[in-house]
Design brief:
The complex is a heterodimer of chains A (about 200) and B (about 100).
Chain A (H helix, E strand, L loop, with lengths): L1 H23 L7 H22 L8 H29 L7 H26 L5 H17 L5 H20 L3 H27 L2
Chain B lengths: L1 H9 L7 H13 L1 E3 H8 L3 H13 L3 E8 L2 E8 L1 H22 L1
Antiparallel strand pairs in B: 1-3, 2-3
Helix pairs in contact in B: 1-5
Classes of the chains: A mainly alpha (about 200), B alpha+beta (about 100).
Protein backbone atom coordinates (compact mmCIF):
# COMPACT_ATOMS: atom_id res chain seq x y z
CA UNK A 1 0.00 0.00 0.00
CA UNK A 2 2.84 2.33 0.81
CA UNK A 3 4.28 1.78 -2.67
CA UNK A 4 0.91 2.41 -4.36
CA UNK A 5 0.31 5.58 -2.38
CA UNK A 6 3.80 6.78 -3.30
CA UNK A 7 3.05 6.33 -7.00
CA UNK A 8 -0.22 8.18 -6.75
CA UNK A 9 1.51 10.91 -4.78
CA UNK A 10 4.34 11.11 -7.32
CA UNK A 11 1.87 11.33 -10.18
CA UNK A 12 -0.15 13.99 -8.36
CA UNK A 13 2.98 16.02 -7.68
CA UNK A 14 4.10 15.86 -11.31
CA UNK A 15 0.63 16.96 -12.35
CA UNK A 16 0.79 19.85 -9.90
CA UNK A 17 4.20 20.93 -11.15
CA UNK A 18 3.01 20.85 -14.75
CA UNK A 19 -0.14 22.80 -13.97
CA UNK A 20 1.66 25.46 -11.95
CA UNK A 21 4.40 25.93 -14.53
CA UNK A 22 1.81 26.29 -17.26
CA UNK A 23 -0.30 28.68 -15.21
CA UNK A 24 2.75 30.75 -14.28
CA UNK A 25 3.76 31.30 -17.89
CA UNK A 26 0.30 32.12 -19.11
CA UNK A 27 -0.36 35.74 -20.00
CA UNK A 28 -3.41 36.94 -18.08
CA UNK A 29 -3.11 40.70 -18.17
CA UNK A 30 -5.88 40.97 -20.73
CA UNK A 31 -8.44 43.59 -20.06
CA UNK A 32 -12.00 42.97 -21.11
CA UNK A 33 -12.51 46.72 -21.28
CA UNK A 34 -9.63 46.99 -23.71
CA UNK A 35 -11.26 44.44 -26.03
CA UNK A 36 -14.55 46.30 -25.98
CA UNK A 37 -12.89 49.65 -26.63
CA UNK A 38 -10.83 48.18 -29.47
CA UNK A 39 -14.04 46.90 -31.05
CA UNK A 40 -15.74 50.26 -30.67
CA UNK A 41 -12.72 52.00 -32.20
CA UNK A 42 -12.94 49.70 -35.22
CA UNK A 43 -16.65 50.44 -35.59
CA UNK A 44 -15.87 54.16 -35.34
CA UNK A 45 -13.29 53.72 -38.07
CA UNK A 46 -15.92 52.07 -40.25
CA UNK A 47 -18.37 54.87 -39.47
CA UNK A 48 -15.89 57.60 -40.34
CA UNK A 49 -14.85 55.77 -43.51
CA UNK A 50 -18.49 55.46 -44.59
CA UNK A 51 -19.11 59.11 -43.85
CA UNK A 52 -16.07 60.29 -45.79
CA UNK A 53 -16.51 57.86 -48.64
CA UNK A 54 -19.93 58.71 -49.94
CA UNK A 55 -19.63 57.45 -53.46
CA UNK A 56 -15.85 57.75 -53.55
CA UNK A 57 -14.94 54.37 -52.07
CA UNK A 58 -11.24 53.48 -52.25
CA UNK A 59 -9.76 54.72 -55.40
CA UNK A 60 -10.02 58.48 -55.03
CA UNK A 61 -8.69 58.97 -51.55
CA UNK A 62 -6.68 56.01 -50.25
CA UNK A 63 -4.40 58.20 -48.11
CA UNK A 64 -7.37 59.33 -46.02
CA UNK A 65 -8.31 55.71 -45.29
CA UNK A 66 -4.75 54.88 -44.36
CA UNK A 67 -4.74 57.80 -41.94
CA UNK A 68 -8.10 56.78 -40.45
CA UNK A 69 -7.08 53.18 -39.92
CA UNK A 70 -3.59 54.15 -38.81
CA UNK A 71 -5.17 56.27 -36.08
CA UNK A 72 -7.56 53.46 -35.14
CA UNK A 73 -4.65 51.00 -34.94
CA UNK A 74 -2.50 53.31 -32.80
CA UNK A 75 -5.41 54.19 -30.53
CA UNK A 76 -6.35 50.52 -30.09
CA UNK A 77 -2.80 49.44 -29.28
CA UNK A 78 -2.24 52.38 -26.93
CA UNK A 79 -5.37 51.78 -24.90
CA UNK A 80 -4.60 48.06 -24.76
CA UNK A 81 -1.15 48.85 -23.42
CA UNK A 82 -2.58 51.21 -20.78
CA UNK A 83 -5.21 48.75 -19.59
CA UNK A 84 -2.72 45.87 -19.54
CA UNK A 85 -0.25 48.00 -17.56
CA UNK A 86 -2.92 48.85 -15.03
CA UNK A 87 -3.97 45.22 -14.68
CA UNK A 88 -0.37 44.08 -14.28
CA UNK A 89 0.23 46.73 -11.63
CA UNK A 90 -2.92 45.70 -9.73
CA UNK A 91 -1.74 42.07 -9.84
CA UNK A 92 1.72 43.03 -8.58
CA UNK A 93 3.08 41.85 -11.88
CA UNK A 94 5.38 43.36 -14.47
CA UNK A 95 3.90 44.13 -17.86
CA UNK A 96 6.93 42.55 -19.49
CA UNK A 97 7.13 39.13 -17.85
CA UNK A 98 8.05 35.75 -19.36
CA UNK A 99 4.43 35.17 -20.40
CA UNK A 100 3.94 38.52 -22.10
CA UNK A 101 7.28 38.21 -23.88
CA UNK A 102 6.17 34.84 -25.28
CA UNK A 103 2.89 36.40 -26.41
CA UNK A 104 4.70 39.28 -28.12
CA UNK A 105 7.08 36.88 -29.87
CA UNK A 106 4.19 34.74 -31.06
CA UNK A 107 2.13 37.61 -32.53
CA UNK A 108 4.97 39.49 -34.19
CA UNK A 109 5.26 37.26 -37.29
CA UNK A 110 1.53 37.57 -38.03
CA UNK A 111 1.53 41.34 -37.59
CA UNK A 112 4.71 41.73 -39.63
CA UNK A 113 3.13 39.72 -42.42
CA UNK A 114 -0.02 41.86 -42.28
CA UNK A 115 2.10 45.01 -42.61
CA UNK A 116 4.06 43.58 -45.52
CA UNK A 117 0.90 42.48 -47.34
CA UNK A 118 -0.65 45.90 -46.68
CA UNK A 119 2.30 47.60 -48.33
CA UNK A 120 1.90 45.27 -51.28
CA UNK A 121 -1.82 46.07 -51.44
CA UNK A 122 -1.06 49.80 -51.37
CA UNK A 123 1.60 49.56 -54.06
CA UNK A 124 -0.58 47.47 -56.37
CA UNK A 125 -3.70 49.51 -55.41
CA UNK A 126 -5.45 46.26 -54.52
CA UNK A 127 -7.24 47.92 -51.62
CA UNK A 128 -9.87 45.26 -51.05
CA UNK A 129 -7.24 42.71 -50.05
CA UNK A 130 -5.83 44.75 -47.18
CA UNK A 131 -8.64 44.19 -44.62
CA UNK A 132 -8.77 40.51 -45.59
CA UNK A 133 -5.03 40.09 -45.05
CA UNK A 134 -5.25 41.86 -41.72
CA UNK A 135 -8.10 39.64 -40.58
CA UNK A 136 -6.21 36.51 -41.61
CA UNK A 137 -2.86 37.56 -40.13
CA UNK A 138 -4.42 38.89 -36.94
CA UNK A 139 -6.26 35.60 -36.57
CA UNK A 140 -3.02 33.66 -37.00
CA UNK A 141 -1.27 35.95 -34.51
CA UNK A 142 -3.99 35.51 -31.89
CA UNK A 143 -4.14 31.77 -32.43
CA UNK A 144 -0.39 31.59 -31.82
CA UNK A 145 -0.63 33.85 -28.76
CA UNK A 146 -3.32 31.57 -27.37
CA UNK A 147 -0.67 28.97 -26.60
CA UNK A 148 0.74 31.33 -23.95
CA UNK A 149 -2.42 32.80 -22.54
CA UNK A 150 -6.02 32.02 -21.73
CA UNK A 151 -7.72 29.51 -24.06
CA UNK A 152 -10.29 32.06 -25.23
CA UNK A 153 -7.59 33.90 -27.18
CA UNK A 154 -7.11 30.87 -29.38
CA UNK A 155 -10.86 30.70 -30.05
CA UNK A 156 -10.86 34.40 -30.89
CA UNK A 157 -7.96 33.88 -33.27
CA UNK A 158 -9.73 30.95 -34.91
CA UNK A 159 -12.86 33.05 -35.46
CA UNK A 160 -10.74 35.73 -37.14
CA UNK A 161 -8.99 33.14 -39.26
CA UNK A 162 -12.21 31.53 -40.47
CA UNK A 163 -13.72 34.92 -41.20
CA UNK A 164 -10.60 35.94 -43.11
CA UNK A 165 -10.67 32.77 -45.18
CA UNK A 166 -14.31 33.42 -46.09
CA UNK A 167 -13.33 37.01 -46.79
CA UNK A 168 -10.77 35.85 -49.37
CA UNK A 169 -13.67 34.70 -51.52
CA UNK A 170 -16.49 37.11 -50.73
CA UNK A 171 -14.79 40.48 -50.16
CA UNK A 172 -14.75 42.00 -53.60
CA UNK A 173 -15.62 45.65 -53.05
CA UNK A 174 -15.42 48.51 -50.61
CA UNK A 175 -18.74 47.79 -48.91
CA UNK A 176 -17.86 44.18 -48.18
CA UNK A 177 -14.46 45.37 -46.88
CA UNK A 178 -16.15 47.64 -44.37
CA UNK A 179 -18.49 44.83 -43.37
CA UNK A 180 -15.53 42.51 -42.80
CA UNK A 181 -13.72 45.07 -40.63
CA UNK A 182 -16.87 45.83 -38.65
CA UNK A 183 -17.36 42.12 -38.04
CA UNK A 184 -13.82 40.87 -37.36
CA UNK A 185 -12.28 43.90 -35.68
CA UNK A 186 -15.47 45.42 -34.36
CA UNK A 187 -18.01 42.88 -33.20
CA UNK A 188 -15.57 40.05 -32.44
CA UNK A 189 -13.45 42.32 -30.23
CA UNK A 190 -16.51 43.56 -28.35
CA UNK A 191 -17.77 40.03 -27.75
CA UNK A 192 -14.30 38.85 -26.75
CA UNK A 193 -13.93 41.79 -24.37
CA UNK A 194 -17.29 41.10 -22.74
CA UNK A 195 -16.42 37.44 -22.32
CA UNK A 196 -13.02 38.19 -20.80
CA UNK A 197 -14.56 40.77 -18.48
CA UNK A 198 -17.14 38.33 -17.20
CA UNK A 199 -14.77 35.39 -16.84
CA UNK A 200 -11.56 37.03 -15.64
CA UNK A 201 -12.73 40.33 -14.24
CA UNK A 202 -11.18 43.69 -14.99
CA UNK B 1 8.92 -1.54 0.73
CA UNK B 2 11.31 -0.31 -1.93
CA UNK B 3 8.77 2.27 -3.06
CA UNK B 4 8.48 3.86 0.35
CA UNK B 5 12.24 4.12 0.90
CA UNK B 6 12.80 5.56 -2.55
CA UNK B 7 10.04 8.05 -1.99
CA UNK B 8 11.27 9.28 1.36
CA UNK B 9 15.02 9.12 0.86
CA UNK B 10 15.40 10.32 -2.70
CA UNK B 11 13.04 13.26 -2.51
CA UNK B 12 14.28 16.57 -1.24
CA UNK B 13 12.23 17.23 1.86
CA UNK B 14 12.68 20.99 1.44
CA UNK B 15 10.84 20.90 -1.87
CA UNK B 16 8.61 17.98 -1.00
CA UNK B 17 6.00 20.00 0.85
CA UNK B 18 2.80 21.20 -0.73
CA UNK B 19 3.31 24.97 -0.49
CA UNK B 20 7.02 24.90 -1.17
CA UNK B 21 6.45 22.69 -4.19
CA UNK B 22 4.01 25.27 -5.57
CA UNK B 23 6.46 28.12 -4.99
CA UNK B 24 9.39 26.23 -6.51
CA UNK B 25 7.32 25.18 -9.54
CA UNK B 26 6.26 28.77 -10.11
CA UNK B 27 9.79 30.16 -9.73
CA UNK B 28 11.25 27.41 -11.89
CA UNK B 29 8.89 28.57 -14.65
CA UNK B 30 9.38 32.32 -14.36
CA UNK B 31 12.79 32.74 -12.73
CA UNK B 32 11.75 35.52 -10.45
CA UNK B 33 8.45 36.75 -9.12
CA UNK B 34 7.04 39.35 -6.81
CA UNK B 35 5.21 38.48 -3.62
CA UNK B 36 1.83 39.59 -4.95
CA UNK B 37 2.24 37.64 -8.19
CA UNK B 38 3.03 34.49 -6.22
CA UNK B 39 0.00 35.12 -4.04
CA UNK B 40 -2.35 35.71 -7.00
CA UNK B 41 -1.00 32.90 -9.17
CA UNK B 42 -0.83 30.24 -6.47
CA UNK B 43 -3.71 31.35 -4.26
CA UNK B 44 -1.58 31.28 -1.12
CA UNK B 45 -1.94 33.39 1.98
CA UNK B 46 0.64 36.00 2.96
CA UNK B 47 1.68 33.95 5.99
CA UNK B 48 2.11 30.79 3.98
CA UNK B 49 4.29 32.50 1.41
CA UNK B 50 6.45 34.16 4.08
CA UNK B 51 7.00 31.02 6.13
CA UNK B 52 7.77 28.69 3.28
CA UNK B 53 9.82 31.12 1.23
CA UNK B 54 12.00 31.63 4.34
CA UNK B 55 12.60 27.90 4.49
CA UNK B 56 13.50 27.85 0.80
CA UNK B 57 15.78 30.82 1.32
CA UNK B 58 17.58 29.14 4.24
CA UNK B 59 18.14 26.10 2.02
CA UNK B 60 19.70 28.36 -0.60
CA UNK B 61 17.07 27.55 -3.21
CA UNK B 62 15.54 30.99 -3.36
CA UNK B 63 16.86 34.53 -2.98
CA UNK B 64 14.73 37.29 -1.60
CA UNK B 65 15.24 40.97 -2.34
CA UNK B 66 13.31 43.82 -0.83
CA UNK B 67 13.14 47.31 -2.27
CA UNK B 68 10.72 50.14 -2.78
CA UNK B 69 8.70 51.25 -5.76
CA UNK B 70 8.01 54.81 -4.82
CA UNK B 71 6.86 54.43 -1.26
CA UNK B 72 5.49 50.89 -1.68
CA UNK B 73 7.67 48.02 -0.45
CA UNK B 74 8.30 45.27 -2.96
CA UNK B 75 9.52 41.76 -2.22
CA UNK B 76 10.93 39.73 -5.09
CA UNK B 77 11.86 36.07 -5.01
CA UNK B 78 14.33 34.53 -7.43
CA UNK B 79 15.22 30.88 -7.81
CA UNK B 80 18.95 30.25 -7.39
CA UNK B 81 21.08 27.90 -9.53
CA UNK B 82 21.15 25.52 -6.55
CA UNK B 83 17.36 25.77 -6.40
CA UNK B 84 17.03 24.96 -10.09
CA UNK B 85 19.29 21.97 -9.72
CA UNK B 86 17.44 20.73 -6.65
CA UNK B 87 14.09 21.17 -8.40
CA UNK B 88 15.30 19.31 -11.48
CA UNK B 89 16.54 16.46 -9.26
CA UNK B 90 13.19 16.40 -7.46
CA UNK B 91 11.28 16.13 -10.73
CA UNK B 92 13.66 13.41 -11.95
CA UNK B 93 13.16 11.48 -8.72
CA UNK B 94 9.38 11.66 -9.16
CA UNK B 95 9.81 10.34 -12.68
CA UNK B 96 11.88 7.42 -11.41
CA UNK B 97 9.22 6.50 -8.89
CA UNK B 98 6.64 6.36 -11.64
CA UNK B 99 8.98 4.44 -13.92
CA UNK B 100 9.70 1.81 -11.31
CA UNK B 101 5.99 1.50 -10.59
CA UNK B 102 5.35 0.95 -14.26
CA UNK B 103 7.72 -1.99 -14.21
Amino acid sequence: MGGDMDNFQAEANIKTIREIMERSTRYTNFSGFSGIIAGLLALCGCGVSLWIAGDQKWGNDPITYMVIWGIVFIAAVTQDFLFASRKAKNNGDKLLNPASIMVIKSVLPGIALALALSIKGIVTKDWNTIPVYWTLCYGVADYAAGAFSVPEVRTFGLAQLITGIIGLFVVTNWTSCMFLIALSFGLYHILFGIFILRKYGR
Amino acid sequence: MGGENVFTDDLDSTIHQKTRLLIMSHLAAVGESEFLTIKNTLGLTDGNISIHSSILEKSGYVECTKDFVGKKPRTTYRITPAGREAFAKYVTALGEILKSAGG
